Amino acid sequence: MKLTRRAALVAAAASLALPAAAVAADLKVGVNVALSGPNSSLGIPYSKGMQAALAYKGEIAGRKIQLILLDDASDPAAAARNARKLVDEDKVDVLMGSSGVPSSVAIAQVAKETKTPMIGLSPIAIDGADNNWVVTVAQPTQLMVDAVVDRMKANGVKTVAYIGFSDSWGDLVYDALMKAAPSRGIKVVSNERYARSDQSVTGQVLKIVALHPDAVMTGGSGTPGALPFLALAERGFKGGVYGQHGLINPDFIRVAGASGQGALMPTGPVIVAEQLPDNYPTKKIALDFRREFQKVNGAPTTDAFSAYSFDAWMVFADAAERALKKGAEPGTPAFRQALRDAIMSTKEVVGTHGVYNFKDGNIYGVDQRARVIVKLDNGAWKLAQ
Amino acid sequence: MTWDIAAILATDGLANGAVYLLAGLGLVLVFSVTRVVFVPFGDVAAFAALSLAAFEAGRTPPTIGLVATLAALAAATEVASLARRGETKRIARAVLLWGVLPLVPCALAWLAARPGVPAPLHVASAVLLVVPIAPLVARVVFQPISDASVLVLLIVALALHFLLSGLGLLFFGPEGSRTQPLAGGTLALGGGVTVSGQVVLMVLAALVLSALFFLFFERTVAGKALRATAVNRVGARLVGIRPARTALLAYGAASLLAGLIGVLIAPVTTMYYDSGFIIGLKAFVAAIVGGLTSYPGTAIGALAVGLVESFASFWSGAMKDAIVFSLLIPVLLLRSFALPHGDEAEEEIDT
Question: How far is Cα A260 from Cα A252, in angstroms, rounded to an integer?
Answer without folding.
Answer: 9
